[in-house]
Amino acid sequence: MGTQLTNNQILLKECINQEFNESNGYKDVNNYFEHFAASQVLKDFNLSDEEIDNGNTGGGNDGGCDNLYVFLNSELVTIDQIEGLNATKGSYLDFFILQSKNTTSFNEQTITNWKNVSNNLLNMSNKLNNYSKRYNELTIEVFGLFRDAIAKLIRSQVKIRFYYYYITLGTQVHQNVEMQANELKELVKRYYPSSEVHVLFINADQLMDMYNTDSEIRVNLELLDQPISRSENEYISLVKLGTYFKFITDDNLFLRKSFFESNVRDYQGHNSVNSSIADTLEGKGKEDFWWLNNGVTILSTDIKLITNKSLQVVNPQIVNGLQTSREIYNYFSERSQKCDKDTRTILVRVIKPESEESRDNIIFSTNNQTSIPKSSLRVTDTIHLQIEMYFKNRGLYYDRRKNYYKNQKKKAVDIISVSFLAQCLISLILRKPDFARARPSTLLTDEGTYKDLYEKNLDLEVYYKAARIGRYVQNTLKKCTHMKNTEVNDILFYVIYAVVADELKKKELSFLDLKEFDLNKITENIIIQVANKIYNKYKALGGNSSIAKSKIFIEDIYSLFNLN
After folding, report:
1. Where do the Abortive phage infection protein C-terminal domain residues begin and end (predicted)?
2. What pTM value is reported for the model?
């Protein structure tokens, strides 16, 4: 007679099966469990479903790593960001390694696999390409990303932390598995002696707790004194620096990344402004911090004055003051013991906007008063608001405000990220699937590309058709083919281009072509036929990301489909 399942195990199985049945793009429930588990463990990092799935390295030869992610100060790091990567002294570089099993136990083999892959790929004297037959391309790629980040940031003296998460629907961890975990820690510490190494076992009860954590964030902000206020929707007050540090960090002292999603600036690392803020924090002058700093602006979906000196802020978004917040975070991360003793203050404005238009105006205005690349303000452009509204009326949700619709429990298959739409447009209109594949994080920073794709008064049906085609192709490749995740990622944007170009028998696709394209012309069978032709050519040329990122692979696509 088998062991009786606990209530939480039964409920989680039911929940996972229901969500799998409502989703698209996952071959089976075990594949979906990897997504589900990563979503819960990394919930505080506010990753989109797309970012979570991009970190999925499972599917064979993964070294026991179903998901891999590198974070710098709680910000996800991708390969196309390495060249410009920088950080202040004492920043945190975190490597998350996840193994998720839709089973009711924990076994030693997972830890053994981790020991082997860590010994092989974390040892910087080992050449990664020597392991190309043992581990899949994406696994090697992310370990390489981690090693490149360390090398790039060596002078910043970053603090390295490893987080190995083993997630199952089990209830207990055998002592032998615990002993293996301790051996893993010792092994990693040999290569990175000053690092922190954590091996964490997430069981059914913990996974249920994570799942039940409310996506709506309510945080109390203690004020120095009674705030200035003209209405219940706006408050201005001074806040102690240590109190503000606690406000922007979680219980593990991780920066609450979700607080900064609306802020259009990227953290600039070492520049004159940030150095000045850091110097002010380090300074021993008599001036209070707020005398020398513009402070921060926080938007909220609701604000409640709990006491004369305390606010409850719902879903806070720091829309101005990212650089200041980062420097305060860096400062107190090194000096957490000073949090309660530091009497200096920062000026904080908390606002509940009356409308989305008001919200966008605040974001644009507060970030447009100093020099900032216009590309950073893209999603506040009118065209993106129009796309969002147009999509919503047709069953799609344009993720202009990252994870806004995810938090409203909209289906992942119906949510289109800003970067995914841009990748589809670049592939279809500009015929640059290599560019779309190689630079997902920096697409909208290219001024020329942006102007080409987001013309004023362009028919919104173009964007809708691009999104529908892209998502249909993506789901079909993931669910209905034998391809691994890495292979799907490599050829996806070539297939998106080719299914339309082949149907129209045209090499150069125009906005009008896309607007008038009949979506019913594309079926799963057509997508699979096109994908198989491209896949076979891709494999014949070597079958790796270098092929997909090559500027000449598109020429092979033209030849395959006789596009002139």
Report:
1. 260-539
2. 0.78
